[in-house]
Amino acid sequence: GQQVMQIPQYQHVQEGEDFTTYCNSSTTLSNIQWYKQRPGGHPVFLIQLVKSGEVKKQKRLTFQFGEAKKNSSLHITATQTTDVGTYFCAPAQLNEKLTFGTGTRLTIIP
Amino acid sequence: DGGITQSPKYLFRKEGQNVTLSCEQNLNHDAMYWYRQDPGQGLRLIYYSQIVNDFQKGDIAEGYSVSREKKESFPLTVTSAQKNPTAFYLCASSILDVPGTEAFFGQGTRLTVV
Fold first, then answer.
1. How far is CA B98 from CA A10, A57, A96, B101, in A?
2. From the candidates A36, A99, A102, which should be mutated to test the interface with B, based on the most B CB atoms within 10 A?
3. Average pLDDT for residues B86-96, to the nearest whole number?
4. A51 exposure class (CB count in 10 Å sphere: 0-12, 13-18, 19+)
């Protein structure tokens, strides 16, 4: 399976500030998924990116897939307390095991 | 309601005992997974199964065992050979053969060894 690294591991931001997490792979990815896990909860699917250079938006969240399909990012504009949690990327290969990046834990300072 | 159910939510085990965590799904998904999560850490794959009566080791399979006798069920046994079993265990399922399908997770089981 694919091995991906996420940075940063932790991020503390003031409410209203922006937040970005990056997912990097040493190999080309077929596609990539993003999940969010609230404190004490379970991961929930956010989105999937498939095409080189793809950009998708969900309200204040912007997801990008690199041109070389080796990296991806999640950007949150004007964070809110509801954004607290850990964000995971997951390279998703057809019919292969599902593994997750190391995750970025976001905390919000009110 | 379709979904994936894990039980129990909390589990306490004495050292040296085996314990089995339940995972059931009614989503008709082919693939099922077990992950372990330690405090402040990511998700590590223990075992996964893509078809009934077949399963594969993940990255941290030592001290664990699974079975897949039915499509709907994928129980995980934490054996006494697992040196540090206290953790949060998550089960997930997904469709195979269709690119880009999301994984659905259960609510998780918190296992504590006392």
1. 33, 23, 11, 6
2. A99
3. 94
4. exposed
